[in-house]
Amino acid sequence: MKLISSRTRNSIPVGKLAAFALLALCLAGGAAAQTPDNDWHFTVGIDGWAPTINGQLKYSLPPGGSLPPEVEVGPNEYLKNLKGLIPVFAEARKARFSLFADVIYLSLGNEKSSVIQAGASVPVDVTLNKNTSTSFKGVVAAFVAGYAVTEGPWGRLDVIAGARYLGLKTTTDWQLSVDITGGPGGGVVLSKTGTTSQRVDLWDGVGGVKGRFNLSEHWYMPYYGDIGAGSSSLTYQLDGGIAYTWGWGSTGLMFRHLYYDQKDDKLLQGMKFSGPELTLAFHF
User: Fold this and answer.
1) Which residue of 18, 63, 74, 95 is 20 to 30 Å from 109, comparing CA positions?
2) For residue 152, which of 38, 33, 41 has the smallest C-alpha distance?
3) Any bridge partners for residue 139, and if so which?
4) For the chain, which domains are there?
5) How far, in Å, CA of 241 to CA of 254, rounded?
6) Whole-angstrom distance between the N-terminal and C-terminal Cα of the chain?
7) Would you say 224 and 237 are in contact if contact means Cβ atoms under 8 Å apart?
């Protein structure tokens, strides 16, 4: 199987996010500005996110192994493998300034996977995988500050900057129909059954846009987009949908897409966490 290069993976998301930000700025630029009040406004809520995971994992050398396995994850189904979810978010806003925090704990098990390489030089036919699966446990937390560059009856556009943390443990259990050979003298480089796990802790600086487009008195379209790097070579997140507010609260149906890519010798290779999201927020 041909692996996608990091250069190819990284070029597409940047262009999409740039177009997203440009569209938001253009739509907001022609609107009349509105001076926000100087009171503090707070929002707290939960967001039930059900992502699927697709991408590649490049493990370090497993115990007793000769070469580290490379694993392709996905495609997988929404909700099927979701084992735990604790999602909370909060926002504080005064005049044009805002602070926003979003923390999600996720546990997903038995994600469909395939060993595709034993190290960098021994390919593995995906048909040799009998029952290979990967589990994920981790926390994604974002902390950003924002400034409303424009606001009016149409909605609001904030420019944001901050940081995102990903603490993630992956565990792959592989079952192959044969041992993988190819070492010196034709020796075994990967046994037909085995388990390996690895953890990453990534801190990245991010910047982007956040806001809403008002459709009517109660209906609106919230949106969020950021991009950044640091411990990762590239990370970005897009989130948007439609929501309904009744004054003291709101609920929305969203779709969130989170992307992580590390250097070619690191664990996460073009990992995508994507899925629908149901939000419930309280305003005070």
Assistant:
1) 63
2) 33
3) 105, 167
4) 6-31+41-283 (2.40.128.100)
5) 4
6) 53
7) yes
Q: Which two tokens stand for residue 4?
A: 């996608």
Whole-angstrom Cα distance, residue 37 to residue 51?
A: 37
CA 213 to chain centre: 23
Which of helix, strand or coil describes residue 165?
strand
pTM of the predicted model, to two decimals? 0.84
Segment 6-59, tens digit of pLDDT: 334 444 455 555 444 444 444 444 433 445 578 999 999 998 898 889 999 999
Chain segment 27-36, per-residue pLDDT in tens = 444 433 445 5
Separation between Cα atoms, residue 233 and residue 264, nearest integer Å: 9
CA distance 85 to 78: 13
Cis peptide before 75 (omega within 30 of 0): yes
One-letter amino acid identity for 267? L
- Provide the CB-side half-sphere exposure for 29 (13 A, CA): 6
Do residues 14 and 227 lie in contact, with contact meaning Cβ atoms separated by under 8 Å? Answer: yes
With a CB cutoff of 8 Å and minimum separation 6, the contacts of 273 are 51, 52, 53, 256, 257, 258, 259, 260
Q: Residue holding tokens 């919230």?
A: 222
> What does DSSP say about strands 180-181 and 234-245: parallel, antiparallel, or unpaired?
unpaired
3-state secondary structure of 110: strand
* Interval 221-240: pLDDT, tens: 999 999 999 999 999 999 99
User: Contact at 8 Å (CB) between 240 and 210?
Assistant: no
For tokens 């190290």, the residue is 119
Closest CA to 157 of 242, 249, 224: 224
